[in-house]
Amino acid sequence: MAKLPRYLPHTLILVVVLSLASCSTTSNRAISDINDPWNQVPAILKQIKRPVFRDKDYPITTFGAVADGKTDCTEAFRKAIEACNKEGGGRVVVPEGRYLTGAIHLKSNVNLHVSKGATIAFSTRPDDYLPAVFTRWEGIELMGYSPLVYAFEQNNIAITGEGTLDGQANETNWWPWKGVPHYGYKAGTPSQLDKNKRAALFDQAEKGVPVAERQFGDGSYLRPQFVQPYRCENVLIEGVTLINSPMWLLNPVLCTNVTINKVTLTSNGPNNDGCDPESCKNVLIENCYFNTGDDCIAIKSGRNADGRRINVPSQNIIIRNCTMANGHGGVVMGSEISGGVRNVFAHDCKMSSPELERALRIKTNTARGGTVENIYLKDIEVGQVKEQTIIATMIYEDTGNFMPTIRNIEVRNMTVEQGGKTGILLEGYPESPVQNIRLINVTIKGAKTPYKFTNAKDIQTTNVSINGEKVDLNQ
C-alpha cells in the first residue's frame, strides 16, 4: 500500500481554512443582504393600492361649464362630481379649453380627469374658498380657507390627465399675504404676520383650543394649499401639471395609499413646496418634476403641540425617478415633524439648479420634538446645490422643551458636481446627537467646506471622497 505524503495534513488544513473563510464571507454577505433596508420596498409597494373607477364619463360641459376662462364654472364642477359620486363613480372630464372655478371638492370614487389642452383656472377671490373647512395649515388643524382642490374623508379619488391646474397666484394676489415685499407685499396692508393671524393660530394650538373654535377663514390671510386630500384612502394624482400655487402644492394629510406619478410642479412663490405628505402612510412619488419656491418634497407630521396631539407619523414613503430643479431642498423631512417620520426610500433621482439649496435636508428643533429615522437614499445624481449637499439639523428656527431624535440615515451611490457651502452638515445636541449616519460610495466635488459636525456620533463612511480627497469619518 502506498504511503501518504507527509505534507497532506497541511494541505487539508489549508483547504479547510479556505473553505471556512469562503463560507464565512458568503454567510456575512447573506446576513448583509437580509439586513438591507431596501428589502422592505417591495412589501411597501404591494400595499399601495391605486384607485379603480367605473368606466363612465361626466363631462363638466354637460353640467353647464363654459371653456372661455371667464364664466364661473364652480357649480358645474360641483354638479358633475355629485352626479358621478351618487351613480357609483367614474371620470369627471374637463375637456380642452380654459375653465374658471372656485374650490373643487372631490368625493369618493371620482376621478377628476383634466384632458390634454384643458386648464382649470382657479379664482383668486378669497371668498370663493369659503365657507371654512377642516384643514391643516403649517402642521396645525383649524377651520380655514378651503384648499383649491379638497377632499375630506373620501376613498378612491384621483386627479389625472395631461392638462393643467393653474392657481393663478402671483405678486398681486395670495402671495402678498406672506408679508414679504419680494412677493408683492406693501407696508401697511394685512398679512399673515399680523398678531391676530398666523401667531394667533399657533397660540391657540399650544393652548389646546378645540379645532372647531380655531376659526381662520375670512380675514385670516392664511393662504390655502393647492391640493389637499384629508383623511382619505387610495389617492392618485397622475399626469397633470400644477402651476402658480398660493402655498403648498400637493399636501395629502392623514392619508393611506397615495400615488403621485408623472406630475409637473412649477410654482416659485412663498412656501411653494412641491409635495408635502403629512402624517401619511404608504406613499409613492415617482417620475415627477419639481421647480418650486420652497422644498421640492417635504415629508411632515404636524407642528409642536398639535402634532403631538394627533401623533401620527409619516411612514413608508418611496420616492423614485424624480427630477428636482429650484427648491430649498430636494428630499426633505420637516420642519413640521412633531409626529415623526420613518421609513423613507428615495432612489434614482436627479437634482440640480443654481437655486436648489440642498439635496437631502432634515430640519427640526426642540419645539417640534419627534423622531426622524430610517431615511435611505441611493443612486442620486446631484449637479449643483447652493448651501449643503446633506444636512441634518436640530437647530432650525424655534426652541422649546421637546428634544428631537435623528437617527439611521444612509446615503449610497451619490455623485455631486458642486456641493455648495458645506458638503455634509450635522447638528444635534449633546443629549441627543445626530446618530448612526452611513455614507457609502459618495463623491462630492466643489464644496467650500467638506463637512461640519456638531454633536454627531456613530458615523460610518465607505468609499467617500469630498473635493477629490478620501474622507474617513468612521467612529
UniProtKB/TrEMBL annotation:
Biological process according to GO: carbohydrate metabolic process
Domain Rhamnogalacturonase A/B/Epimerase-like pectate lyase intervals: 60-112
PROSITE patterns, per database record: POLYGALACTURONASE (PS00502), PROKAR_LIPOPROTEIN (PS51257)
GO MF term list: polygalacturonase activity
Signal peptide limits: 1-29
Entry-linked SUPFAM superfamilies: Pectin lyase-like
Stored Gene3D superfamilies: Single-stranded right-handed beta-helix, Pectin lyase-like
SMART domains: PbH1
Keyword Signal tagged: yes
Keywords associated with the record: Glycosidase, Hydrolase, Signal
InterPro entries in the record: GH28_Enzymes, Glyco_hydro_28, PbH1, Pectin_lyas_fold, Pectin_lyase_fold/virulence, RHGA/B-epi-like_pectate_lyase
Family of the protein in this entry: Belongs to the glycosyl hydrolase 28 family.
Name assigned to this protein: Glycoside hydrolase family 28 protein
